[in-house]
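Pasting as-is:
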Amino acid sequence: MFQDDKFKCRLFWGIVLLYVISATGFSMATIDPNEVVLGRLAKITAGNKNDASDYTQIEDACLALIQEFDSKAQIGRIYAELAKVYSGKGYSSRHDFRVAKTVEFSQKALQQPLDAVIRCEMYGKLTDALIAVCLESPPHQFAVLRREAAETCLQSLKIALDHNAPDVRPVLPALDTYMPDRQKVREAYNARSIRRKKWELESNFFYLKNGLTQMCVSLYSREPYNLDELRQLGQTILAGYPERIDELIDMIQDRISSKPKLNRN
């Protein structure tokens, strides 16, 4: 049936690999202690999100899980998931009900123990909601609200930098070829699993760092300009990363200088 001998060979060793794994009791799945609550949250949040009643229904169902999953880590993931739900489609205006809800659940999540990626993401969600408020604020309020948003943004950026967020998007690790030896199969899978986890972590922080950087640039490339304020905040919050502060300032200055000059004659 198969004409390609190489395909036959790959298929054969694929069957051997599956047999070896099952025979040795080796699991391809990574066990997450919060797997059950995450699965329940995924089912709940997959529902429609067309109007306020849909969001209320999802929120009520998620919060009800706290009665079953009451560890601080699980509660943090429940709040984090709600922050993602309310921020998922963006905001129509500063008065959008989802803005306040994103702020509420991001802050609640940040009061619980979270892994570094989720904590970084929650600060990012909170920043995004604060930006939605400040960008549509009257000029006399904008500068005050911008500072609050920038502080939150820099806190998130620090988490990414503390975890060595790369400047270049990581490349997905290549798959290993199949091997008939059981021990080598186990070793190859373990090595690939480690590389995959490292790639996922670096990729998450790469995208978070880039997004947070653009948020800061957007905030301070708007009038009234105040690069001294950003530098001061950066020196306090991003202590130990002076080159990143300089990069931010340079990017903002480039953005400002690229704006079309108004003819005031």
